[in-house]
TrEMBL record:
It comes from the Eukaryota. InterPro entries: Ig-like_dom, Ig-like_dom_sf, Ig-like_fold, Ig_sub, Ig_V-set, IGSF11. PROSITE patterns: IG_LIKE. Keywords: Signal. It comes from Ameca splendens. Residues 1-23 form the signal peptide. The lineage of its organism: Eukaryota, Metazoa, Chordata, Craniata, Vertebrata. This is Ig-like domain-containing protein.
């Protein structure tokens, strides 16, 4: 292989490596959880990013079993926790920021059951797949 062939391979490898560094990866350690009403539960959401945390934005949403087509924003972190769902105020908080997007939900209620989605954005990284999903059942 001539020097131009080696240069092309090196360029392709460098471009691939640069592309890999821009991908934010989200991992849900669990796909479903059960909790007894009144207990606490950890909703895990891990992510890996190559960027610093200066632009980190985490959003959890819930599609409740009672109305799955109407998801509600649960909590948002953008350098400060904001709880959008009044029924969760004082019952939910992040546990591992900025290194994970795990949340803990205290004093669980039957209405807390549903599909939780964890979305992480950390520009300039791009999310791949961008959303983690977890089914929570409250017994």
């Amino acid at each position: 292989m001539g020097s131009s062939g080696k240069w092309i391979i090196w360029t392709l490898c460098a471009c691939f490596a640069a592309r890999q560094k821009t991908a934010l990866r989200i991992t849900m350690r669990e796909s479903s959880l059960e909790v007894v009403r009144g207990d606490s539960v950890l909703l895990p959401c891990s992510f890996f990013t190559f960027s610093d945390f200066s632009s980190l934005n985490v959003i959890w949403t819930l599609a409740p079993f009672s109305s799955p087509k109407t998801p509600v924003q649960v909590i948002v972190f953008d350098h400060g926790q904001v709880i959008k769902n009044p029924s969760l105020i004082g019952r939910v908080h992040f546990t591992g920021l900025p290194f994970s997007a795990d949340i803990i939900l205290n004093d669980t209620q039957v209405s807390d059951g549903g599909i939780y989605r964890c979305m992480v954005n950390n520009p300039p990284d791009t999310a791949d797949p961008g959303v983690g999903e977890l089914l929570l059942s409250v017994l």
